[in-house]
Amino acid sequence: MTLDEHAVQSYGQNTSVPSKTEILNVVGAQRVPGRRVFDKVNPVDGSVNVQVHEADQSVVDQAVSAARASLTSPWASMPVTTRAELLRRIADVIDERFEDLVAAEIADTGKPEKLVRELDVPRAAHNFRAFADIISTAGLDSFLTDLSDGSSALNYAVRKPLGVVAVIVPWNLPLLLLTWKLAPALACGNAVVVKPSEETPSTATLLAEIMTQAGLPEGVYNVVHGFGVDSAGEYLTTHPDVDGVTFTGESSTGSAIMRAVAPSVRPVSFELGGKNAALVFADCDLDKTIDGLTRSIFLNTGQVCLCTERVYIQRPIFETVVERLTQRARQLTLGNPMNPETTTGPLISQEHRKKVLSYFDLARSEGANTVVGGGIPQLGQDLERGAWVEPTLWTGLDNSSRVVREEIFGPAAALIPFDTEEEAIRMANDTKYGLAAAVWTTDLQRGHRVAQQMKVGMAWVNTWYLRDLRSPFGGVGLSGIGREGGMHSLHFYSEPTNVCVQL
Ligand code: NAD
Fold first, then answer.
1. Pairing label, strands 308-314, 412-418
2. Residue having the nearest C-alpha atom to atom 35 of ligand 1
3. Domains in the chain, ordered, with CATH?
4. At 322, is the secondary structure helix, strand, or coil?
5. How far is it, in rounded angstroms, from Cα 220 to Cα 211?
6. Which of 242, 305, 306 to mutate to test the pocket of ligand 1 (most atoms within 8 A of CB)?
7. How many CB atoms within 10 Å of residue 170?
8. Is the distance from the beta carbon of residue 464 to the nearest atom of ligand 1 less than 6 Å?
9. Rg (alpha carbons) of the chain, rounded to whole number
10. Residue of 390, 435, 409 whose CA lies nearest to 278
11. How do residues 38-76 score in pLDDT, each as one tens digit?
12. What confidence tens digit (pLDDT) does each residue in 214-249 have?
């Protein structure tokens, strides 16, 4: 069997990912091997069932060329309504291949099956349907300009694709975050070269089959696998024929990519890290708040950029909230992702676990009281080699401690008391990040007042991670540059040309 056949067969319809899958790069209709392969380790138990072909410079060159070549007919001349229909067809094929995508996402990440079924895969289909609607209804700027001689001029902007867009995404919500960028990029008529995380190569590769099945023209969707520096990521961001870079990942990586694209001055959209705060007022609905906080601290093992890592709690209810959150953390069930009782999976890798555990140690040395967790859970022999950590909560940490200032990206949060609204706002805003915040209060005016003062891209009141895809998504400070979502995405993934006509 050739590598090509192997890669295609690996994801046969309605099969789970078999052992020893080889994952290849996707260049147009071809599956292209790299000169080197790397192991994809299953974070649940440390097993290696997947080998991934790393794209070298020549594979990246081929992928960018294939994307460039596809920017002609039929893709370039496809009317917006036909493109929107194609996006809906992609969503339909995602639904048809639901089981394959679920299996691939679990194999890469070890997420609980329930979470993948309820969040990751449905949201991928929703991303395409939402942007099919958005592009179908999006208007164009036009202005009638009065001139001093009594005549007028008509200004109108036409929307054109950016061209070849590099889409670089992380491992925490691999399919969801990729399709969040892909849907508007395709809606605007771009061609893409996708670089999924080295930790999660499967769903992006499977998506290539879905694109073909849905009828996307050849070369519009390409995938290169590998790492960042001296690998596919860097080859792509420094490639002279890439017209724009959309990136989700760590703030430090965003900074490196910004340096890489600076010489050729290309547009970037950055969705970066966070150190998100929850502000819990004494007048909150306690049951709802505890549910919301539990979700916002521990969802996806704390590996969501929007997760809460700092919880500021008004003093009269501090002890109660600590006690109830501790109980909820103890009730989380870690284990096999296919077990319906499992609420919490492993971290993505041993390397990431090392980082998270180093913050557990740092918290102790910074004087924290670990009220729950703080170590490695005992889950039995099968899972001993997995990347597991205990859900963890701390009290006693100062707002200036490193654990409260640096992104951990694990199932852990610091619980800190406050007395006044002003103090809570000051502490929540005392950070270089600025992605998201959540305010928990039954005082409607306070909810609006505090949310509006948060130095973040997204502030929630009495909820968390509730999204309308037409609304702006992104962060300030170290959390990103630009916004995506609705018209914000269309603005990034297209270039307007203004036409001015003397009437
Ligand atoms: P990462 O920055 O290490 O990697 C992200 C992607 O960039 C991967 O595909 C990686 O291979 C690639 N990459 C790494 N170095 C590169 C380089 N020099 N040039 C080009 N590409 C490079 O991030 P991660 O560890 O995969 O993901 C976790 C981070 O992502 C966290 O900081 C989290 O907060 C952030 N995140 C942000 C959002 C958001 O919307 N703001 C969403 C999810 C995750």
1. parallel
2. 249
3. 11-272+478-502 (3.40.605.10), 276-468 (3.40.309.10)
4. helix
5. 9
6. 305
7. 23
8. no
9. 24
10. 435
11. 999 999 999 998 999 999 999 999 999 999 999 998 998
12. 999 999 999 999 999 999 999 999 999 999 999 999
